[in-house]
Specification:
- The complex is a heterodimer of chains A (about 350) and B (about 130).
- Chain A has about 350 residues and is mostly helical.
- Chain A has 2 domains: about 5-110; about 135-350, no CATH class.
- Chain A has helices at about 5-20, 45-75, 80-110, 135-155, 180-205, 210-235, 235-245, 250-280, 330-350, and strands spanning about 30, 35, 120, 160-165, 170-175, 295, 300-305, 310-315, 320-325.
- In chain A, the strands form 4 sheets. A two-stranded antiparallel sheet of chain A has the order 1-2. Chain A has a two-stranded antiparallel sheet with strand order 4-5.
- In chain A, helix 4 (about 135-155) packs antiparallel against helix 5.
- Chain A is globular and about 65 Å long.
- The two termini of chain A are about 30 Å apart.
- Chain B is mostly helical and about 130 residues long.
- Chain B has helices at about 15-30, 45-50, 55-65, 90-110, 115-130; strands spanning about 5-10, 40, 70-75, 75-80.
- A 3-stranded antiparallel beta sheet of chain B has the order 2-4-3.
- In chain B, a hairpin with a 3-residue loop joins strand 3 (about 70-75) and strand 4 (about 75-80).
- In chain B, helix 1 crosses helix 3 (about 55-65).
- The longest helix of chain B has 20 residues, at about 90-110.
- The chains are: A mainly alpha (about 350), B mainly alpha (about 130).
- At the A-B interface, strand 3 of A face strand 1, strand 2 and helix 2 of B.
Chain lengths: ~350, ~130
């Protein structure tokens, strides 16, 4: 059986498990993105909504798996057909789970209650510190910098093109360019900087019910940053060492794919376990998160409030933050994220003279 | 968020948010909880914490600055000034202030708060004011 098909099955089942758990990750008083009475999830009406939601999620998972396996069984060997299969099964999974959530959210709105809009703020200069301190915060960038130093020292000895994937007979079947290594490193370092900026800003500048949510969300974001850094080592430094035939005794495929995935899945599992306890530890006496339901679109997925100066608000889906898309800085940031890689590639190619990254 | 140096506003209230902020901070200033030289958070930070537009907080700070309570500094937030006691208001200003006081008690009664309870709170408040002065 194709290994990629097995990986895709694991992804689908993991996504389904996450979707089944999703409604329970929000704080008390939020159900499918709607402000409700904290005791509502235990009522018969809520259980009915949940049953319908889960039925759609399971049906979506089955449809996704069938699509992927049937096409694979038919013998889709052409590259274009493989891509179409992946895209279509992903589209089924995404659309089905989103539809399930939106249906449940609409049904829940009949039981919505007015959230308390009492807001409290401290006038004291707060003592704000990052969980884990500066070393934990700077870790991903330090890792990327070390990988960059190794690349810089070995640069002249790296051929302009080198093999990165071999078949069972040991014949190279895929190559990468030297510029690709540099591009990957710059790309992951840029992503890490963005993640670290988000973590810093959201930790200090998001309105939240307390330090528990901030800490949990911060850990999640940093887990992604560390995973990216480790992946950048696999894609750059280890490739370089392989080129120079240095025996390192480690399968680079493990480093590049499996290890970061394991780290992220472990952290996400930890956060899934932690978030209900964090939600129940929240102080206060009122339901919801202090924001109006009308400001949350698509069943509590998108936050739009031009009267709120916050850039980040706590996510209604449990752990993490949402961006206030009504904030003008969001659109600037989006443009940077979308156009930045192309601009960077162009600069490297035209100004510095490196081959363009495909 | 417990503590003496906290303010609360209710976005469902008919009182504008900036007025609630002004009244809350002024209470702390008059009671001496905030003293000369103390910093209050920057406009943007307080706006984020309260989940409102920063223009609302800026308006509140401007009102307090006009009353002589705050010195507004960019980015570093505002600083509480050593405000000299204002000269006694004119008769007209005093009448207007007391009329606001009367309007507030009328609103409390229309909200259903019993007159006896209002009177009790007023007596308690009077005792506190006289104790401070």
């Amino acid at each position: 059986m194709d290994v990629r098909l097995i990986i895709w099955d694991v992804i689908v089942l993991s996504a389904t498990g996450g979707a089944m758990r999703g409604p329970f990750l929000a704080r008390p008083g939020i159900f499918f993105g709607v402000t409700v009475d904290p005791g509502f999830p235990r009522t018969a009406e809520a259980k009915g909504i949940l049953s319908v939601y889960r039925a759609i999620v399971v049906a979506t998972a089955i449809a996704t798996l069938i699509t992927a396996h049937v096409v694979a069984w038919i013998g889709a060997s052409a590259q274009g057909t493989k891509a179409a299969t992946t895209f279509s099964s992903f589209a089924i999974l995404f659309t089905g789970q989103l539809a399930a959530w939106l249906i449940a959210s609409r049904q829940t709105r009949r039981f919505a209650r007015q959230p308390s809009l009492v807001r409290t703020a401290s006038l004291q200069p707060g003592e704000r510190s990052l969980p884990g301190g500066l070393w934990f915060f700077g870790g991903p960038i330090l890792i990327s910098l070390m990988a960059g130093v190794v690349l810089a020292f070995r640069w002249e000895s790296i051929p302009s093109s080198f093999a990165i994937v071999w078949d069972q007979d040991g014949n190279p079947i895929r190559w990468a360019s030297r510029a690709a290594s540099l591009g990957v490193l710059i790309g992951t370092a840029s992503l890490n900087l963005l993640l670290m900026w988000i973590s810093y800003k959201a930790t200090f500048q998001s309105r939240s019910s307390g330090s528990h949510f901030q800490r949990t969300s911060y850990i999640g974001a940093m887990a992604i940053a560390y995973s990216l850094s480790i992946e950048s080592i696999g894609l750059t430094v280890l490739n370089v060492l392989n080129v120079n035939r240095v025996a390192i005794g480690v399968n680079t495929g493990f480093i590049v794919v499996v290890l970061p995935l394991l780290i992220m899945m472990s952290i996400m599992f930890y956060l899934f376990r932690l978030s209900p306890a964090v939600a129940s530890a929240r102080e206060g006496g009122f339901a919801g998160d202090g924001t109006k339901d009308e400001c949350w679109k698509l069943g509590g997925i998108i936050y739009f409030n031009p009267d709120d100066s916050s850039f980040f608000v706590e996510s209604r889906l449990g752990v993490g933050w949402n961006v206030n898309v009504a904030n003008k800085r969001f659109w600037f940031l989006l443009a940077v994220v979308l156009l930045g890689p192309f601009a960077l590639n162009s600069i490297l190619h035209q100004v510095i003279g490196l081959p363009a990254f495909p | 968020m417990p503590g003496a140096l906290t303010i609360s506003i209710d976005l469902n209230s008919s009182v504008p948010a900036y007025r609630q902020i002004v009244d809350a901070i002024r209470s702390l200033l008059v009671d001496g909880v905030l003293g000369p030289g103390d910093h209050v958070p920057p406009v943007r930070q307080l706006a984020i914490d309260l989940g409102i537009h920063f223009n609302t907080v800026a308006q509140a700070y401007r009102v307090l600055a006009e009353e002589g309570w705050l010195d507004l500094k960019r980015r570093r937030g505002a600083i509480v000034l050593d405000r000299t006691n204002p000269a006694s208001p004119s008769k007209a200003d005093r009448r207007q202030s007391l009329r606001r006081f009367r309007d507030l008690t009328a609103q409390l009664r229309s909200d259903g708060v019993p007159a006896r309870e209002i009177a009790r709170h007023l007596r308690k408040l009077a005792a506190e004011i006289e104790g401070v002065c």
